[in-house]
Amino acid sequence: MMTIRSLLTVLVLAFLSGCSQSDRLRQILAEGEISVVSRNSPTTYYLYKEGAAGFEHDLAQLLAEELGVKLRMETAYSLAGIFRRLEREEVDLAAAGLSLTDDRSELFRRSVAYASMVPKVVYRTGNRRPAGLDELDDLHLVVLAGSSHEQALQALAAEAWPDLRWESVAEADTMELLERVDNGSADLAVIDSNEFGMQQSLYPMLAVAFDLGSEQDMVWYLPAGPEFRGLQRRVDQFLTRIQKDGSLAQLWEQYFGHTTVLSRIGSHTFARNIRTKLPAWRDLIRQVAKEYQLDWHLLAAISYQESHWEPEATSPTGVRGMMMLTNPTAKEMGVKDRLDPLQSLRGGARYLKDIRRRLPRDIQEPDRTWMALAAYNIGPAHLEDARMLTERHGGDPHLWSDVMAHLPLLQKREHYRTTRYGYARGGEATHFVQNIRHYYSILQWQDLSADQPGPPLNPEDYLPLALREKRFLAL
Ligand code: GLU
Predict the structure, then answer these.
(1) What is the pLDDT of residue 147?
(2) Which band of pLDDT confidence, cut at 50, 70 and 90, is reported for residue 469?
(3) Which residue among 102, 167, 192 is best mutated to probe the pocket of ligand 1, counting the most ligand atoms within 8 A of its Cβ?
(4) Pairing state of beta strands 93-99 and 33-39?
(5) Which sign does the torsion angle of CA 32, 234, 226, 116 carry?
(6) Which pLDDT value is given to residue 357?
């Protein structure tokens, strides 16, 4: 029988092993650095001119700031590569738009859920649209190798659909899947709703055929070892806090909040115009953006929203030119000829900068720019009314997502009656800003994707699927 003394020894040893130097959280704090693996895509992590960006990157950066350490981001070039790094304990966590699955949870630690998504089966419009798995027949379905979707298909095949066939593509980027459906080398692809929303405008012919199952949780994964237990707890605390205080919702809004506004036809036209019309104006837009210290992608997005890059554009309401300036605005900005593209771009850029500068100081970027755009569209006075209504209804007038939700109230009598400046087409202003944000992000990504670092020469990441460690097949 165990004596009290030996029992105590066991307890003390257990305690010591639980919080000795092998505790990874302590090491991270002592070393001042946390390492996070992600994948390079517009929805997760990419390089931007000031450095790294992407929803997962920014989230990981917030964690690093909370811990008071530096963030080291690493890129894996396949989903298997991400989990291999975790298994070898080469990184502290994986943040890559990963779905929660039972198999993954058995092999790794996982955080609380911080977002959710619905897997979508995507097809090319004009082709046959299946309404469900029972209508796939001989359609060629592609899915990311090692993804939660591959796993879901395996389960479906084992349970109820023995004839289900698909091809698993060993690429980390869902764009590859969309590319295949777009160019006809596949008929269908499975992709998460948030990713499709963001990429759809690059592939305007693609649309959702049906949902593959219900909503899935998005989680971070950590290595399974006991030394990661403390870090896992800390990560959960952090994610719970940012869910409660609204900063997570704000970050999501920043990256995904503009993805569903464009119609398919609008996206199609935009993709075509980037190729056909933008090249003629790129240098001029760049030049003016530089003069006014604006991001040229933003100026390009605004001018596209205003005139579809048509310098001669005119509207029945009397606005004209590349930036569709009204006569009074043009006068105020010193524009003599509204149809001169250089003058028009300069007038619009200057007007936007003026408005942005005059907004209350406590509105931070990027909300500041979105609100400046709303004011550019309906005028600063109406924006002020919308901010007041936002506050009155318990929203935060410093957040674009809250103000945006209240702008359409300016069209309703019971609300605009109570404002200082009255009726305004608030719904239109909301669309104006959301469209621009959408164009802006596509233009940025188009420009950036060419500069992303290529995969390292790590043959493991390129081994054919069948040669990979068997356990990764199931991930
Ligand atoms: N969420 C997927 C996963 O966890 C990856 C993204 C995708 O395949 O669309 O495997």
Answers:
(1) 94
(2) very low
(3) 192
(4) parallel
(5) negative
(6) 95
Tell me the domains of the chain and their CATH numbers: 17-112+219-256 (3.40.190.10), 119-214 (3.40.190.10), 267-451 (1.10.530.10)
Q: How many CB atoms lie within 10 A of CB 235?
A: 28
Q: Over the stretch 214-258, which tens digit does the pLDDT of each residue have?
A: 899 999 999 999 999 999 999 999 999 999 998 998 888 878 876
Distance between Cα 129 and ligand 1 center (Å) = 23
User: Are 435 and 419 contacting, i.e. CB atoms less than 8 angstroms apart?
Assistant: no
Q: Is ligand 1 within 6 A of the CB of residue 194?
A: no
What's the pLDDT score for residue 378? 87
As beta bridge partners, residue 89 has none
Cα 326 from Cα 310, distance rounded (Å) = 16
Expressed in angstroms and rounded, the spacing between residue 117 Cα and the centre of ligand 1 is: 10
Contact 39, 79 (CB under 8 A): yes
The pLDDT, as a whole number, for residue 444 is: 84
Asked if 181 and 205 touch (Cβ cutoff 8 Å), the reply is no
> What's the full length of the chain, in residues?
475
Report the half-sphere exposure of 62 (CA within 13 A, side-chain side).
18
> What letter would DSSP give residue 145?
T
Q: If pLDDT is split at 50, 70 and 90, which confidence band does 449 have?
A: low
How many A from CA of 134 to the centre of ligand 1?
Answer: 23
Tokens of 420: 């200082």
DSSP string, 432-475: HHHHHHHHHHHHHHHHHHTTSPPPPS-GGGGS-GGGS-HHHHT-
Q: Is 195 touching ligand 1 by the criterion CB < 6 Å?
A: yes
Q: Is the pLDDT of residue 289 over 60?
A: yes
